[in-house]
Amino acid sequence: TSLVAVLLAAFWAQVATAEEIRHGAIKLDSLTFDKAMALGSHISWLLRFADYYSLGRAETTWQEISGQAVLVKNFFLADLPCHPKSGASDEDDKNEAASPERVSNEEVDETIARGKDGVNLDIMERFNITFEDKMPVFVLINEANPRGLKFDNGLLEEDRMSGARAPELLKWLGENGVPIAPSGTLQEFNELVRQFHQEGFPSALIDKAKQLAEESYKDDRKAALYAHYMQKVQEKGEGWAMKEVVRQYKVLTSPSTSQAKTAELFVKTNILQVFAKKGNT
User: Fold this and answer.
1) Are 138 and 50 in contact (CB under 8 A)?
2) In this structure, are 192 and 238 located in the same domain?
3) Looking at residue 2, what DSSP letter applies?
């Protein structure tokens, strides 16, 4: 573990500057990508490929996920900005790359592939990404998917222009081995909610949630809400959570709701949505 920490520290010192780390993401390129991937198969990466025109798309999603990613051990976000080749022909590229000294065709091809006339084109090619794709493109690399798994948010073509939505991407990460919680929720309790629904709302899991909140999360007010909502679901049925989400949303969007109340309701609604989704699966 200490060796990995040393390697990580050395790696970040080489590739990370204040300008290159944005919203908790590391900026990688053709020269540093393989170094990052060589840090170990136990490390998971979420890569974002974005061209100049798509940098603003899904930025809120990226920020939200980065806020959650810092809480997940051995999970990192990486930005890979992509730009196409210039208008110069391949023959001109090779002639320029070969000057002033003579080199082999293989070396010339490698120089071009390494991004001389484009940025991160070689990495795009590894994952079968082209500029015809709707960017940004998200790729997960972990032990289960060493060659990379592309995210497909399943939205209609016209909707995809606005980028992926955080809940969909977070759910996809969870389904593929990254234990990341939706914003404003607690993953350990989210797992209890999943088990609670699967086992038919047993009282033993409500007691377990209460004990966990008191012993391990006594300073986190969100923890106590889980046991409270579990009791409500047990009493009123699994449809209660969705009805409560709708009710609280109406209060949230009311002009008369104070800023303090809005912040409180956001926390409650995020947790209620965990219950509502489990009840609809």
Assistant:
1) no
2) yes
3) H
| 6 in any annotated domain | no
Are residues 129 and 214 part of one domain? Answer: no
CB 206 within 8 A of CB 231: yes
**pLDDT reported for residue 17:** 38
pTM above threshold 0.85: no
Cβ contact 68:184 at 8 Å: no
State the Cα–Cα distance between residues 145 and 155, nearest whole angstrom.
23
Backbone angles phi, psi at 27, to 5 degrees: -90, 120
If you write DSSP's letter for every residue of 45-86 in order, what string do you get? EEEEEE-GGGTTTTHHHHHHHHHHHTTSTTEEEEEEE-B---
Q: Cβ of 271: how many Cβ atoms within 10 Å?
A: 25
CA distances from 264 to 86, 111, 183 (A): 51, 55, 14
Give the domain extent around 122: 20-85+116-176
Sheet bearing 25-27, strands edge to edge = 25-27, 75-81, 44-50, 137-142, 145-150
The token pair that represents 1 in the structure block:
């573990």
Q: Are residues 141 and 244 in the same domain?
A: no
Do 162 and 191 lie in one domain? The reply is: no
Return the pLDDT at 109.
40
How big, in percent rounded to 5, are the helix, strand and coil portions of the chain?
55, 10, 35
Q: Are residues 186 and 220 in contact, defined by beta-carbon separation less than 8 angstroms?
A: yes
CATH code where residue 160 lies = 3.40.30.10
pLDDT tens readout for residues 192-217: 999 999 999 999 999 999 999 999 99
